[in-house]
Amino acid sequence: MAAEHRTRRISSPTNEPAWVRWTLILVGLLFMALFLVLPLVAVFSEALRQGIGTYIQSLQSPDALSAIRLTLLVAAIAVPLNVVFGICASWAIAKFEFKGKAFLITLIDLPFSVSPVISGLVYVLLFGAGSVLGPWLKSYGIEILFAVPGIVLATIFVTFPFVARELIPLMQDQGTGDEEAALSLGASGWQTFWRVTLPNIKWGLLYGVLLCNARAMGEFGAVAVVSGKIRGQTTTMPLQVEMFYNEYQGTAAFALASLLALLALVTLVLKSALEWRFGEELAATGRGH
């Protein structure tokens, strides 16, 4: 009996009374309801207040369609480039030892510590009318600011850590044993990457891509600085939501915002599914301990 009692005490994670645990749970649920559920309910209720017909008509307006197309285009360019960068950076950091590794990791984390507005201003300084690069590129007909290239550059900057930061700890945990075994059996570098490294990191890579895409489609600060907010040309979905709202087009603003909210919900569901699948794979391979 004494051994059984000790087992129960050891297996219990806390010794707090039940009322403390339930209080913490209720506080957590209250915060989720107040700061997550209620705003989502408000967005969808305002978007559908005048009926589904008005909702669909708002999304089919030229400005809304242009914002949706531009957002998808920017994400389609920025995310694959960040995937390439993330894989290369994580491969170099996790598999090799070289001078400046700590500095490279710091640079990767830089967008997390810099305001997106500041990053947008940096591009204005680099490619603006008073810079060296801006007039030179413009003489060749290349527009960076207030055009799609500037939006893409700003989006890449604020999103490039996501893939790398997911893959670096994963690759470090896996080590180099699998790659060394493949190379010793005669596999080339590319064969090792495609048949060994990539399958080992596939779930972490998908997780990073998911977060990167969500941030790319929802970015506001950096894009607002470099885009110029030219209606129908350089307004992404977040910028167009602000424009609609400032022009007292509430239904159109909330309709477009509901698409971003749906993106957030889908991202949350996929994120949970990937975390579950990734955790299962780690447990199966014995790497979760």
TrEMBL record:
This protein's record includes keyword Cell membrane: yes
Subunit annotation: The complex is composed of two ATP-binding proteins (CysA), two transmembrane proteins (CysT and CysW) and a solute-binding protein (CysP).
Keyword Membrane: yes
Domain ABC transmembrane type-1: 68-271
NCBIfam families: 3a0106s02 (TIGR00969), permease_CysW (TIGR02140)
Membrane-topology annotation of the record: Multi-pass membrane protein
Function: Part of the ABC transporter complex CysAWTP (TC 3.A.1.6.1) involved in sulfate/thiosulfate import. Probably responsible for the translocation of the substrate across the membrane.
Subcellular localization, as worded in the UniProt entry: Cell inner membrane
Xref: InterPro entries: CysW_permease (IPR011866), MetI-like (IPR000515), MetI-like_sf (IPR035906), Sulph_transpt2 (IPR005667)
Transmembrane segments: 20-45, 66-94, 114-137, 144-164, 248-270
Name this protein carries in UniProt: Sulfate transport system permease protein CysW
Gene3D superfamilies according to UniProt: MetI-like
GO molecular function, one term: ABC-type sulfate transporter activity
Annotated PANTHER family: SULFATE TRANSPORT SYSTEM PERMEASE PROTEIN, SULFATE TRANSPORT SYSTEM PERMEASE PROTEIN CYSW
Stretch forming the signal peptide: none
Highest taxon, organism lineage: Bacteria
Any Pfam family the entry gives: BPD_transp_1
A cellular component annotation (GO) from this entry: plasma membrane
